[in-house]
Amino acid sequence: MNNLEQKLNPYMPSWEYVPDGEPYVFGDRVYVYGSHDKFNGDVYCMLDYVCYSAPVDDLGAWRYEGVIYRKDQDPANKDIQGNLYAPAVTVGPDGRYYLYYVLSSWGLVSVAVCDEPAGKYEFLGYVHYEDGTRLGEKEGDEPQFDPAVLTEGDRTYLYTGFCGVGDKSRHGAMGTVLGPDMLTIVEGPVFVAPGEPYSHDTSFDGHAFFEGPSIRKKDGKYFFIFSTQLFHELGYAVSDDPLKGFEYKGVLVSNGDLNIDSYKPADKPMFYCANNHGSMVQIGDDWYIFYHRHTNGTNYSRQGCFEKLTEREDGTFEQAPMTSCCGLDPLRSEGTYPTYIACNLFTDTDLTYVPWTGWMDDRFPRLTQEGGDKMPGDCKIEAPRGTEPVIADFGSWRVANYGYIANMRNSATAGFKYFDCKNVKKMSVCTKGYATGELEVRTKWDDEKPLGSFTIGYANEWQETLADIEIPDGVHDLFFTFKGNGHLQFAAFSFIK
């Protein structure tokens, strides 16, 4: 098994951008549906829906299922002015698979249907009241956004909504019940979680509903997952009833690792964050949270990740830290790893979000890739295999297949979790760029003294630099910090036996 066959974040190929992940187990596979961003995209969700799946007993073996629905299939979108925002899928009373979505160009809920989880979905219709009026067009309706669905018997619970901070014109997340035809409203809509203006005397205060509703059922209770008013975190609320009584319980994941104080201060961001959207799923005996991170210095090239959740005795969950290994088995300290699996990326300037103008500016490192947007089949060169350091092939495999970290300026740090280190005495890094200085290695982000460092010089081609780096045996984080001048590009690192 080579390193890229381990369970790594992001779990899809490094050139794939599927945010807003909704995971479901159908049969013996877990399927992930999401919106579809474009590398170097300039708005959200520019591409058609695709699906990835993996065996429930091997969450490292993800398979591309292909395009399952095109945006021009919606009759209202023949001019392709609308993009396909975050979808959700449920199995109807007839055993077919129903895909719910909202186009970016209007606030109505569209539905497509298929006989299999990842086949070719066909447009079915729009969610509507019994008189035919579409949800979102009736007087008093609020615009529909980010649907989530859960089917129980012949009733399907549909959750939608968006409410920005300070926006009193919208009230929060809505719950609506559909009949067995999967289109017709039989109850609701009602508000199930408040937006920020209406949250201050509730359990949601400080973590009010913003967008991205999702719904799951666990131990007879309904778990409502959503993006909070803080953007970077997925919070959740729990109720005994699918349409009322939800109480906020905490955060499942933050795409900046905020709130976590186990390895750094709780308010220190360890990744550059913006919106977040995803959900949880039970696979075997364990629960996992799927979410997305931001790359390329923009809001519009988001990648899916997942982490294993830790359940408390009362059935709630601890917040999962971001990792390079999906919160599962630590990675082996052998062979070569691409740096796009960094779960931490930060500088000595603590910043969670740079406002809309450019989002991230030239002060900060970013995950990116060579060339333009890629699709399956574009990348022909396989990753290096085995445990030997790779020198001559660094450039070819990285350029063809993988992302890398760009623009590492003085103090920029890339962190990786976790490695099971055994007998590590020597390492190498693959870098280039107009940079001179030291690339230091630590097992804690704030250790005053590094374990060792690589001497970096100017290079306009990818090159390997070796150094004596001795890491104590045991499971560790690894942090690489650049101290020097210029801007470093960092593609890979190797453990050398």
TrEMBL record:
Keywords: Carbohydrate metabolism, Glycosidase, Hydrolase, Polysaccharide degradation, Xylan degradation. CDD domains: CBM6_xylanase-like (cd04084), GH43_XylA-like (cd18620). InterPro entries: Glyco_hydro_43, Glyco_hydro_beta-prop_sf, Glycosyl_Hydrlase_43_Enz. The keyword DNA damage does not apply. This is Glycosyl hydrolases family 43. It holds the Pfam family Glyco_hydro_43. The keyword Hydrolase applies. GO terms for biological process: xylan catabolic process. PANTHER family: ENDO-1,4-BETA-XYLANASE, PUTATIVE (AFU_ORTHOLOGUE AFUA_2G04480)-RELATED. The lineage of its organism: Bacteria, Bacillati, Bacillota, Clostridia, Lachnospirales. Belongs to the glycosyl hydrolase 43 family.
